[in-house]
Amino acid sequence: MIWQKLKPTLIPIGTFILILTVSFAIISYGRGYRLDITNKAVRPTGLMVAASEPTGAQVFIDGKVSGATNSTLNLSPGWYQVRILKEGYQPWEKRLRVQGEVVSKADAFLMPANPSLSAITMNGAAQPVLSPDGGKLAYLVPNGTDELEDKAGVWTLDLVDKPLGLNRDAKQIVKANVLGIPIAKATLQWSPDSKQLLIQNASGRPAYLVDTDRLNESPQLAPDPQSVTKKWLTQDAAKEKEKLSTLNPNLVAMITRAGRVINFSPDETKILYEATASATIPQIIKPSLIGTNPTEEDRSLKPGIVYVYDIKEDRNYIIQNINASSSHWLPTSRHLLVITKEKIEVLEFDATNRRTIYAGPFWDSFAVPWTSPTKIVILTSLNPAAGSVANLYTVNLR
User: Fold this and answer.
1) Quick one: DSSP state of residue 240?
2) What is the reported pTM?
3) What kind of architecture, by CATH, is found in domain 33-109?
4) Cβ-contact 52, 84 below 8 angstroms
5) Within a 10 A sphere around the Cβ of 266, how many other Cβ atoms?
6) Could you give the CA distance from residue 235 to residue 33 in angstroms, rounded to a whole number?
7) Which of 92, 300, 304, 331 could potentially form a cystine with 108 if both were Cys, beta carbons 3.0 to 4.6 Å apart?
8) Rounded distance, CA 274 to CA 319, Å?
9) Domain residue spans in the chain?
10) Which helix (H) or strand (E) holds 118?
């Protein structure tokens, strides 16, 4: 009797409680909570997203196979040694921290163990210079045999992958016979907008200002090359000032006072710079973000040392054994191309996973990235004993 009276009320209440319980369980599961049967408790876990390029690599957690990329792993809070391996590629390894209800990421751009080389030029190349936007190379083709005399001059090459490989051939923009200086003694300087080149010899005169998108049959003389260079330097400084203006004033003051900006990453979220004086980077983001890069940072600057500052996470990393003037960002904005006397290396912006990608001969310490993270351009001769001239080659990462 009592049940019949309470039934209309209890069923909706029970249904409501059941829905709440199931919803709470689903939400808790999604946030990483798991039932610990051994200890008879519900404990939080963290999520680790393991990704790689290329995909299909094995993921090792503390030395044990735990899955393959790309995948998401549930792990108890703590520190883990993560290793990502794929046949034909160098291993990626990092110590990562997993926190309850926080997503950690192991994101590996794998470097090939034995990258191949592909020739770009065949008629020789000298003094290659990368454009400020990273999209073009300018270089000299020296005087050679009578058959190649018409090819001597200044050339440009687009470092862009185009559909079906179209329009990737280098183009001549100035012939050597129209310049008033020996082509072998010419120097090249890009304009800040990557649209013009200043061509001059060691003494500075005569100098020519040429467009880089066409053949300049009658190159324009630059009567005052020093003023052109000064104007371009002013434009470069204005661009850098504009980028810095978007940052925290305390950070800008510190960098201006105790550092020299080398360059921003392509996505402008990181700064490669060299310290010029001792200083301490103030904390910009308060309180500190959770789930940030766990690699140890160094906020105490020492003169002559190169650092990378991560704007998004307010973290600063020291980069050892690097020639700042010949270092470049890869298009990933997470990797640096580092050139030493004997080899070319790629490392992550926090100085981890430093890997050699080329240890063969290369000239003039020249190595620059393609506009996609698939190639590196170098200057080398594959048969120097035979006296062959240097040419441009790509080191193929994919």
Assistant:
1) H
2) 0.85
3) Sandwich (2.60)
4) yes
5) 16
6) 55
7) 92
8) 10
9) 33-109
10) strand 116-119
Measured on CA atoms in the order 11, 16, 22, 28, is the torsion positive or negative? Answer: negative
Secondary structure, 3-state, 353-396:
CCEEEECCCCCCCCEEECCCCCEEEEEECCCHHHCCCCEEEEEE
Residue 218 in tokens: 């009658």
Look up tokens 């196979």; give the residue.
Answer: 65
Distances (CA, A) of 389 to 56, 79, 137, 350, 365: 41, 52, 18, 38, 16
Amino acid at 229: T
Q: pLDDT tens digit string along 23-52? A: 555 655 555 555 455 555 556 678 999 999
Residue given tokens 């053949």 in the structure block: 215
Structure tokens at 19: 């829905």
211-225 pLDDT, tens digit each: 999 999 999 898 889
Tokens at 249, concatenated = 């004033």
Residue 108: predicted pLDDT: 97
Provide the 3-class DSSP secondary structure of residue 14.
Answer: helix
d(CA 284, CA 378): 39
Is residue 344 within 8 A of residue 362, CB to CB? The reply is yes
Q: What is the DSSP letter of 110?
A: P
Going from the C-alpha of 188 to that of each of 57, 192, 368, the distances in angstroms are 44, 13, 16
According to DSSP, residue 218 is labeled: S
